[in-house]
Amino acid sequence: MSAHVTVNKHGGSDNSSLGECHVSDRTPVIVGAAQITIAKGSQPGPEPLDLWEKSIRLAADDAGIAFSELKGTQYLGNAYCLGWNYDDQAARLAERLGATPQQMEVPSPSGTTGLKLMKHACDAIRAGADIAVVCGGEAIATQKYYQKNGDALPFSYPAPDESNRFVLEDQQHPGEGASGLLGGVGAVYTFGMRDNARRAHLGIAPDAYRHQNAELLSAMTRVAAANPHAWFPQEKSVEFLTTINDDNRLIAYPYTKHSVAIMDVDMSAAQIVLSKAKADALGIPEDKRVYPWTYCYADDPVDTAPRADLWRSPAMAAASKATLNAAGISIDQVDYIDLYSCFPAAVNFARDALGISDRPGDKVTLTGGLPYAGGPAASYVCTSITKLVDRLKADRNGIGLISGLGMMMSNHCYGLFGTRPLENLKQVDEAAVQAELDRIPLKIVRTDYTGACTIATYTTIHDRNGDATAAAGIVDLPDGSRAYARILDEGLIAEALEVEMIGRKMEMVEAGNAGIIRAA
What we know:
Elements: E1 28-37, H1 48-63, E2 75-78, H2 89-97, E3 103-105, H3 113-126, E4 131-139, H4 140-148, H5 174-178, H6 183-202, H7 206-225, H8 238-242, E5 250-252, E6 255-256, E7 266-275, H9 276-281, E8 291-299, H10 314-327, E9 336-338, H11 344-354, H12 380-394, E10 399-406, E11 411-418, H13 430-438, E12 451-462, E13 468-476, E14 482-487, H14 490-496, E15 505-510, E16 515-519
Parallel strand pairs: 2-3, 2-4, 9-10, 14-16
Antiparallel strand pairs: 1-7, 4-7, 5-6, 8-11, 10-11, 12-13, 12-15, 13-14, 15-16
Helix pairs in contact: 6-11, 10-11, 10-13
């Protein structure tokens, strides 16, 4: 079992002509970043709290500072631990640091968490703090190891009850649950529906689209294969990813087992952010500093069916544009990109939003992506930021962009990082960005309708043998509203796996949160 920090060297574009500006004592700088992974097959490993402490110690080593300096931590951001319900996880971590932070934060779980915590760490620095720590990680693989052997988990500080546990189902539309799209497992179906909507909008045949997704993912696996922290550090061919078999069963059309995020990992990552004044006092050289430039968070509607265009994300487009505009740069000037990649739809929609739809998979991930590098629940972006910090410490003209994504592709954020302060840098007016998005009209979702309808998008639901048990979808109604729907007819389910169903006329024969539809 070992942990190490890898510096990846890459020759980026020449951004040396970008203007610099005066750095104040309150300017936040990332001085240390690290990741620890307990390799697959090396379980049991440490509990999450131990992993967090270890990754922070490694980040201190990366910064070249004593771990004892972190006793002065004033802001501590800790990603929500999905696998183990601690009584007060941030307070327990602060104890490990010997710190009494004025501000401790554990946001609700989301793939945006790493960037959100980084922004809040920088805000704390600008407001007067000198030391901020951001950290997250999971030990779900170790938990599964103990559970498989029938052993009690030897983890510390369990919450006395589950009343503080986040419940994803509480955030979802009843129609999604009735369709079989409920909870974290349901995310794969929702994202599959979004990818199918995009495919139909682009006019690409189903088999051709599956091949395109496999090309995207195969290129991502090449990055994972070179990442010593990847959970699956193996390159996978396009043929392997498109072949449906016992090892690569269908989960939700068009997604197979090896195209979706893996959360059952043991990994943690951390960053240390200092004020310029503190970095100077500790003698940290300029070539070891990375500057968080700017950031934007934006939301699409929480529920899927009300969104007017199921094939795109206005919030992705708005947040990414605002982030780049605030720095006065274009996407072509960005050397390193890591797009959140829980499912292919996340990458496809983000590439569309950024105007880089033709970028291959190995040019839009630094880790290898959540299906291959591993996706430790709300902590993945902590790992992607760590990889970006490594790159920028090696390439002193580099610029990097990180994206995060949460819920059912409704929460989005983008963060931009550089190797020096940037002239005329602006902070995004997120409220104005969101206000513009909120003006987009929404579709009414009905639960009382029977009659003619048209499939707007769909996916299939499969059991653990890979057999399709139902199809779920969203249908357009004649009055412009929408409804969630289910297909139970075996013949129609089989067709949904072979031919384009979007745009097909159907009949809703039973109303409800997710009505039943059949061929018209």
